[in-house]
Write a structure and sequence with these properties.
about 70% helix, mainly alpha
Length: about 130
């Protein structure tokens, strides 16, 4: 007589599998919502701070400063061409690309961690 646990019925196994998938999917949606919300907030703050005349003046002052124009360095450094701070240009003009990249790489990281966790916590099914 075997003391092994009886294998769960197919309906019980399917319900447990559905529940696990629902949890993982809900967690994925929550993580992606956090990524999107955080990036939108970061964009809002960046546009508010970098779009001011003071930030423009600081950027112009840094662009025209002596270390950016020195000719006696071993490596010639080019002065930035943009009249606006790079963060402002990135968040204003290329935000869709930034958001797409954030979602794509966050999804890949989530998938890798979810697969590893799923495998680590999976129960061994008894072989018949």
């Amino acid at each position: 007589m075997s003391t092994a646990e009886p294998s769960p019925s197919p309906s019980t196994h399917a319900a447990g599998c559905w529940r696990r998938r629902a949890i993982w999917t809900g967690l994925y949606v929550a993580v992606m919502a956090a990524v999107v919300f955080s990036l939108i907030q970061f964009r809002r703050v960046a546009l508010e701070t970098m779009g001011t005349p003071e930030a423009q003046a600081e950027w112009q002052e840094w662009r025209d400063s002596e270390p950016n124009q020195s000719d006696d360095l071993p490596v010639q450094r080019r002065a930035p061409k943009s009249p606006e701070p790079p963060l402002l240009v990135l968040m204003r003009d290329h935000f869709a690309v930034v958001m797409t990249g954030a979602i794509l790489f966050s999804s890949l990281l989530y998938a890798a961690l979810a697969i590893a966790a799923w495998g680590a916590f999976a129960r061994q099914r008894p072989t018949p």
